[in-house]
Every structure is written in structure tokens, then in C-alpha cells.
Design brief:
single chain; alpha/beta; five-stranded mixed beta sheet; about 15% strand
């Protein structure tokens, strides 16, 4: 649960690159990706369940933004929390929605390690990180400050993919970090969901 004033502050400060593991759900007769870009779920005036659902018990962290995040709606109004809610044809964000629905991670805070680096190929990001240690250090400090600001400095961080997991293990000493296969991996959707559910069932028993 997040208080309204805190939600508004987070939106102002980090809404351009961060989001929450909270999505509109498709109807039974719709395609699996339907509604993935519906940002009305983050409108506190329209969604009475919003503040009771989102939380910072977990933080999902990706490596970087694979495609430019839209900061403007079709009506030219500023948009927030659109990262991880991409409705474009190549997006696999709907797979993460399917995998997290009904788990304790639903509603968790989401961000990226490199919030300003737009690159769809993770191997190129890995090379970039190796060649720019000062930038890695700057991002580590920024992400730690971000987590502290949103009240997640003691949260369990869920790394999305191997490369993000490696960076977090190296630079986030003292914080619990677990790895989740990236949702764009070539894994059948139901199998990916089963991996996620099993992972958090195991977490609950430790």
C-alpha cells in the first residue's frame, strides 16, 4: 500500500522511467497483449484499487530500456509509468503481466539499472557497461538513491535477466537479490509463469 501523497511524489520524481507491476487485464476473448498499454490503471481518480495494490516490498529491475519510452499521450498530455507497459507489436511486456498475476510481486515497484540507455540488444549494453565503469558507478548511486526515496532500500530486488543480476550482485552488497529469467526469453508463456510462481513459492518458505 502507498499513501496518495507518496504516490504523487514518486510519480513526479521517477514516473518518466519507472513503473509498477500492475496492468489492466485482457478480457477472455482478447489477445494476450490486450490492455498492456492502458495507463488509466495509474489514475488514482479512476482506479480505487491503485493505492492498495502497489507496494515496495519487491523491486523489479531490468537492465535498460529497450525502446524509447513515450512521455506523451496521443492527446499530447504527459504520461507517467509507461515503462514496462509497451503496447507496440514487438513488446513482450504482456508476458510479465501474465507471469506475475496473482503473485506477491503484483503491484511491485519497477525500474531499470540504466534508465537513459535505449538499446534492445543486451549484449551491447553489457559491452557498454564494461567500457564505461564511471557510468555504471553513477547509475548504482542513482538507483540506490531512487530505492531509498521510494522506501525500497530494504526491498528484495528481482533482477530481470542474467546481465542485470550480475551487475546487482557486484554493486548492491547487503540487499537481497534474486534472479528471474527475462520475460522476452524464448520460454513458452505458461512455462515462464510456472517458473515465476515456483520461485516465489520457494521465497515464501525461506
Amino acid at each position: 500500500m502507498i499513501e496518495l501523497n507518496e504516490f504523487k511524489r514518486i510519480r513526479r520524481s521517477f514516473g518518466g522511467h519507472a513503473s509498477w507491476a500492475y496492468w489492466a487485464q485482457p478480457n477472455a476473448n482478447e489477445r494476450k497483449s490486450a490492455g498492456i498499454g492502458d495507463l488509466s490503471v495509474f489514475d488514482e481518480n479512476q482506479n480505487s484499487m491503485l493505492l492498495d495494490t502497489i507496494h515496495t516490498n519487491y523491486v523489479l529491475m531490468g537492465l535498460n530500456i529497450s525502446r524509447e519510452v513515450s512521455h506523451r499521450s496521443e492527446a499530447k498530455k504527459p504520461t507517467f509509468f509507461s515503462n514496462f507497459h509497451d503496447s507496440r507489436p514487438h513488446s513482450k511486456d504482456y508476458r510479465l503481466r501474465f507471469a506475475l498475476t496473482g503473485t506477491s510481486v503484483w503491484g511491485a515497484y519497477m525500474t531499470d539499472f540504466f534508465v537513459d540507455l535505449v538499446e534492445p540488444k543486451s549484449n551491447k549494453v553489457k559491452v557498454y557497461a564494461k567500457n564505461h565503469p564511471d557510468e555504471v558507478y553513477a547509475q548504482v548511486e542513482n538507483r540506490k538513491a531512487e530505492l531509498k526515496s521510494v522506501g525500497a532500500e530494504r526491498a528484495t530486488i528481482i533482477a530481470l535477466g542474467n546481465d542485470c543480476h550480475s551487475l546487482l550482485l557486484k554493486h548492491f552488497d547487503g540487499q537481497k537479490i534474486i534472479k528471474l529469467p527475462h520475460y522476452s526469453a524464448y520460454i513458452p508463456l505458461k512455462d515462464y509463469r510456472n517458473q515465476v510462481v515456483k520461485l516465489f513459492e520457494n521465497e515464501a518458505t525461506h
